[in-house]
Amino acid sequence: MTLAKPIVLAEDNPRDAELALAAMEEEQISDKVVLCQDGAEVLDYLYCRGQFKTRLKGNPAVVFLDLKMPKVNGLEVLRTIKADTNLRAIPVVMLTSSREERDLAESYTLGANAYVVKPVEFEQFVSAVKELGVFWGVINEPPPERACSHQ
Amino acid sequence: MESATNHQAQAPPVHGEVSTLPVDSTPTIPAPSRSTVGWFPVLTIEHRVLAGFSLVFVGILIISAISYRNTNGLLKNSGLDGRSHALIQLLGSIDAVMAEAEGTHRRYLVTGEQAYLDAYKQLIAQKPAFTTYLNELTRDSDEQQRRVDDLNRLMERQLSVESKAITQVQERGVQSVRKMALEGAGRHELDGIHQIIHEMDVYERQAVNRRVFASAASTRHTILLLSVGAGLQLVLLASVYYLIRHDITERRRVAGELRRRGELLEAANKELEAFSYSVSHDLRAPLRHIDGYAALLRKTVDRSLNEKGVRYLQTISDAAKQMGQLIDDLLVFSRMGRQDMLRTTVNMDQLIKSILSDLSPDLHGRQISWTIAPLPEVKGDPSMLRQVFMNLLANAVKFTSTKPVASIEIGVESSGSEEIVLYVRDNGVGFDMQYAPKLFGVFQRLHRADEFEGTGIGLANVRRIVHRHGGRTWADGVPDKGATFHVALPREGSKHDARQADCAR
To answer: Which chain A residues are Cβ-neighbours of B334 within 8 angstroms?
Structure first.
């Protein structure tokens, strides 16, 4: 598998993160995953600041967002991304435990590109994460490259 | 909540108008056998107010009647007084006229001059009028009437004596009556007349005095009565005012209490929502981890694991999955109670068809004979009703799995005008009717988990949804013979979301 751009995975729960990485490992895309432990880190990454100040410029292939995260939650990150003309094109996939209707509705209203409920069963979880990673990271054609010029 | 609604429903419409009092005022008079303490509190506020106004009304009637009678008496007395005064005046006139007539007559007797005779005749010409007036003014009193008769007789006698004397003068000249002229012809009679007139005068004045006293006393009584009556009315009106005010205050308090409870309920509902959100989000994560790490572990130690180890890991996974299913079912159950309901026409034939196609993966290797009657359209929420029949049909499929040939029937009972009764019948394991009340409870199961899988929430969901539609559910069963589940839905669709009714159950 060739993966040009990184995948940003926002997941505050280290176990969920480990399981997700284990799933992506099977498709050999785990080395492209940038793990952020809260919404603030995601924004830091996108705006090339904080610990990501020196990162390679460019937008990720996709952002997987958990809804419930410390500091800045998933919906807030989503709102920020979709309100920024430089970030708006980045595909955002909500990856969450919540099946609540209002979370679904609000996510789509804010411009989420997909909404996936994490399955309890590991096999299903693995296949879901694998498929998502492959689809958004490999199959899907990302939006044209844009330099991290706003910093 | 329910009791408060009942309380309001019981309150009859207010009809405390005074005009309806004579008919409705019966409750104010307690039956003699009833204790005076016991009856008052059982009266509703409307009856009490009505009773109060009735009493005020009756009081006004009584006072008006008495006032009318007294005023009438006063008017009558004043009329009588007028006559008495007229009589007294008339008596004075008669007294004067008769005295003057006697004097003029005497002068005529002495002088024989025609002028005196003319004057005399003029004076006595008034006599018939006097008599008429006297009779008129004394007709109420027998005693005075008797005196009037005496007076009349004496006047007649005076006039006849005088008339004889005049005749004598005209026939035999003035000389013949000289002696009579000196004494006065009717002198004796005139004294009698004076006497009677004096008696009548005294009598009439006494009568006037008596009436004045009586009138004064009566007026005093009337004033006293009016004051007491007005006081009583004031007290009664004050009591009625107090009753009404008390009632209004009470109603206001109850309304406030209802509002407060509504707010509490809303807060509780919000909390419940937050709770279920938290359950949905947070409770699922550890389960995912249990299952996930069990899977990772199995993969890592795959070769070195013995059969027992594999079974243990499988059990961990299964338990986690089962709990995940339970949580999902509970969330659906909670959402079914909160979710907004649609109200459209649902084509049951199509609904059942689509459910059966969804179920078809579970039907592999099963022999099932389906009997599906033509079904009517019903009013309700399509996705909720789908959930209902999905549960019922899945149950029917599940609980007939022990039979070599399962038979499942979907039909409609001879439905009444009010509701449509649909049923799902199977020839499965059935149930003992003594457990029927438990069937629709949350997490109620009649079978061991290793016999039939399931979380025990499906029928609870069925009942909750049907209740929200304003309908009913019930089931019949015979152990090992089968079960029939009935769903009765109102023909017109429920007028309102029956969510509260469901909460009250």
So the answer is: none
